[in-house]
Amino acid sequence: MKFRTGLAVGAGGSLAAYAVGATVRRIADRVVARYRAKLERAVRRLGAKAEHGGPAVKAALAAARVLHDGGSPARALLSAGWTALKETLKRIFGGGRRGKPANIVEQIDIGAPCRLVYDQWTRFEDFPSFMKKVVSVAQESDEKLNWKAKVFWSTRSWRSTIVEQVPDRHIVWRSEAAKGKVDGAVSFHEVTPDLTRVLLVLEYRPGGLFERTGNLWRAQGRRVRLELKHFRRHVMTHALTAPDEVEGWRGEIHDSEVVRAS
User: Fold this and answer.
1) What span, in angstroms and rounded, lies between the C-alpha atoms of 106 and 99?
2) Contact 165, 252 (CB under 8 A)
3) What pTM did the predictor assign?
4) Considering the domain boundaries, does residue 153 fall inside one?
5) What ranges in the chain are assigned the alpha helix state H?
6) How many CA atoms lie within 13 A of 235 on its CB side?
7) How many helices (H) and strands (E) does the chain have?
8) Same structural domain for residues 106 and 201?
9) What are 114-126's pLDDT values in tens digits?
C-alpha cells in the first residue's frame, strides 16, 4: 500500500515536473520568437540603410545577420569588427563613395586694425613666406588663383575662383582640383580699433589616399588652426611694424566678376 502510494506520488511528481517543463519551453519559445522577430526587423531596417550608410551601419547589419542566423554573440562581434574595418579601408583606398566633405570652422583674434588685417590677407602670393604648408600661390587675375600645397609628404594643386569679395568684410571662393579641394569663406570683424577677429569657414573635400586618411583624423582642422597662427604672427611682426608697405587689393567681386577695381 505504501509502495503504491509512493508510485502514485512519484507519478504525480513526474507529471508536475513535465507540466512545468512544458510551460518553461512554451515561454522560451515565445521569447525566442519575439527575439527573432526583432532581429528580422533590425536586419530589414539596417539593410535599407546600409546601401547609403557608413562602416558603423554596415557593421551593425553584419552582426544582426549573424545573430539572426543563430550565431553566437562573440561571432557577431567578430563579424561586425571585420565589416567595419573592411568598409573603412574601402573608403580610404577608393573602393567606397567619394569622401564626404569635412567642415572646418576656426577663428583667431589679431591685435591689429581690421583694414590692415584684410589688406594683408589679400596679398595671397605672400602666403608661402609665412605659412608652412603653402608651397606657392599664383594670382592670374583678380578673381583667379592657382595654389600648390603640401599634404603629408605629397603635393597637391588646385585652382580657386573668388565668387564674392567685399573689402574689410569677407571673401568667398570655390575651387577645382583633381585630388582634394577646399571651398570656403573668410570674414573680418572689428572688435576694437586695434583688434580684429578673423573667422574662417572651410568645406574640405578629400580626394586622394593621403587626404582621406588625414580627414579621418581631422588633420586638416589642426593644420588650418596652425596656419592662422602663422598669419597672425606675420601681421604682428611684419605688417604692423610697416603698415604703409602693406598694399592690399581693395576691389569688389560679386558672382565671380570684378564690379569695382582696386
Assistant:
1) 21
2) yes
3) 0.60
4) yes
5) 2-50, 55-68, 73-92, 114-121, 127-130, 209-216, 219-234
6) 28
7) 7, 9
8) yes
9) 999 999 999 999 9
